[in-house]
Model the fold of this input.
Amino acid sequence: MIDLYERVQSDEERVWDSVIVMLREDKKDYAQAIFKSIIEKTFLLFKQPVEFIYETNFKMPSEDCIYKIKHLDIEIKKNLREKRIDSAGKLLVEYLENLSKTSDIDYKEITSDIITNLYSQSFNCTCYRVEEGANAATTSEAAEILGVSTQTMRRWLEQGKFLEAFQTEGGHWRIPKKYFKTSLEQTRKAEQLMKDIDKKHSTGELDEFDLI
Done:
């Protein structure tokens, strides 16, 4: 089974490859339109204004330059998906510097704005997670509550089924308890009750009061 992130990255690479194809077919207007749409999506990930992208006349660079920008763009998105903020920030500087070679955008000013916003989001997110840590379940706890294996639970988390789930600095998943209708304690009590009932039923000791 292909990992969800691998499929996303494969789609991103195909879109970039279409820019190359359009250039080779001398369809520069199409190539530039696709090029701008890719850049727009990257800027939106950093919650930055994108209007200037469509006001800027990008001079389509050589294939070598496009491949370099493509590689940086994909790596930035990959690092953001994996919540590696520091790595994404470093790649962003080089990404914007290469973009500036295709237009007259001031990459230093844009880089400063984006990185400031990025680390502000990271700080706020970290504070939120520390505060909400007590209200989140571990992977094994969530699996026990839902009655699935920890392996299944991890797969669901990697597929993004729990949108507000997050990873600690050590890489451990935490799932907000609001996703569960019962607590871990309630789940365990219910399981123990069923075990007791099964045991009494097998020995003939069960009566109607055990079900109250």
Notes: The first helix runs from residue 4 to 24.
